[in-house]
Write a structure and sequence with these properties.
mainly alpha; 16 helices; globular; about 425 residues
């Protein structure tokens, strides 16, 4: 072990220790407020629904804690335990080319990680979601989704990985700049293709029928100056009772998507307000800002990897005695979250800021009262806790807590009156 080994262990303990402490705070805070609906929601949410949300939140947190422990142990096994070296050495015995050997080794590790995560996904879907009345999935459908995901990972991910490894081996000192350009281009392409190519592999998307709801939504789109390639209803109820709405795609390939569960639970005015919120993200250029930020962070990440790849202490400190570009890339992807997890509050802060701005936009272009009533229904039907721990939510919530968010909408309504 070298100095970086101790730095890694310290960062690992600090990162996971922080997450477990925050999780304990969340569970305790939610449990302490389980028996009383917050005053702001007392006339809107029943005690039974509030308690269901509390129990659902605590149960999911408990599973996540176990998942985190297993993930930490697996990470240590791959790095300091020598797992990565063993797997690369195994594939090296076949005397294939360096590229094929590296691809095989990385693919093996990805499959192992998926297998480790599989029991938790099964338990989440068929035990927790079933217990709280959300699961509509079946085992055949679940494993079909897994098979499609794995096939896509192989068909799309492996060629991109092969290209990245070729760039790392062939381009020279500035390989990381070319690799960054490839990743960004690929991400933009996938964002453009997702609505029409990827998403239909998992769900059925039906154009919204003509009627009052479609006319209302089209009127909203015209007021907001938003062009899309259609309004679609997704069969989310085939797998889950949770509801949602989103717009997806880039350029001229944008789609508006409503879960069928959402359409069945909200009134037309509430659906209009929820969609106005989603359009707010577009009109406030949040998508562009997030793409730019992600691009910059990815560039910084590749630049750091471009430096680390030449440092023996990086490999030796993480249990690897025979360095290679492929191993460097794998180690960086596996280990960097340990060091960047402390930046979560910064990321969450800006995400919540964007949500406030989108709510402001929605309140200006739809009925604020319907926005509130629609959100309350979503919180209740999705069993989202109304009483999260403030510190936990500061780290993990991309959306403002319910009470804060609704209070903000009410203030915006007053300012517009």
């Amino acid at each position: 072990m070298n100095t970086f080994t101790y730095i890694f262990i310290a960062a690992l303990i600090a990162s996971y220790g922080l997450q477990f402490w925050l999780s304990a705070r969340q569970k305790r805070h939610v449990a302490e407020h389980r028996n009383q609906v917050p005053p702001a929601f007392s006339s809107r949410v029943s005690l039974a629904a509030h308690q269901k949300a509390a129990d659902y939140t605590i149960t999911k947190s408990q599973l996540h804690d176990v998942d985190s422990v297993v993930g930490m142990v697996f990470l240590l096994a791959l790095t300091l335990g020598g797992g990565i070296s063993l797997i690369f050495d195994f594939w090296g015995t076949f005397a294939w080319s360096d590229l094929v050997t590296s691809l095989s080794a990385i693919a093996s590790i990805v499959v192992l990680m998926s297998l480790v995560e599989l029991p938790f996904s099964l338990y989440q879907t068929f035990v927790i979601e079933e217990r709280f009345g959300f699961n509509k999935n079946t085992l055949p459908q679940f494993f079909k989704d897994q098979a499609i995901s794995m096939t896509l990972s192989i068909a799309i991910g492996m060629p991109i990985l092969a290209l990245l490894l070729w760039i790392m081996d062939s381009i020279g000192e500035l390989w990381w700049l070319y690799a960054w350009a490839v990743i960004i281009s690929f991400s933009l392409l996938m964002s453009w293709l997702f609505p029409t190519v990827i998403a239909p592999l998992f769900n059925k998307f039906t154009p919204m029928e003509e009627g009052a709801l479609k006319q209302r939504i089209q009127g909203l789109l015209q007021r907001c100056g938003f062009n899309s390639q259609g309004i679609f209803i997704m069969d989310g109820s085939r797998r889950s009772g949770h509801g949602n709405a989103y717009f997806t795609g880039l350029g001229n390939n944008k789609r508006i998507v409503f879960f069928d569960t959402l359409v069945n639970s909200l009134e037309e005015e509430e659906l209009e307000a929820v969609l106005a919120h989603e359009l707010g993200h577009f009109k406030c250029k949040h998508v562009i800002k997030m793409l730019v930020t992600s691009s910059i962070m990815t560039l910084v990440g590749f630049a750091v990897l471009g430096w680390l790849i030449h440092e023996d202490w990086f490999f030796l400190g993480l249990g690897v005695e025979t360095p290679s570009n492929a191993i460097a890339l794998l180690l960086f992807v596996l280990v960097s979250p340990v060091f960047t997890s402390f930046m979560q509050p910064v990321s969450a802060y800006f995400q919540r800021k964007f949500e406030f701005e989108a709510d402001d936009f929605a309140t200006q272009h739809a009925q604020g009262t319907k926005m509130i009533s629609g959100l309350v229904k979503l919180y209740e039907e999705n069993a989202s806790t109304l009483t999260p721990d403030p510190l936990y939510s500061a780290f993990h919530y991309s959306h403002p807590p319910a009470a804060i968010r609704i209070a903000h909408i009410e203030e915006t309504m007053q300012s517009l009156a």
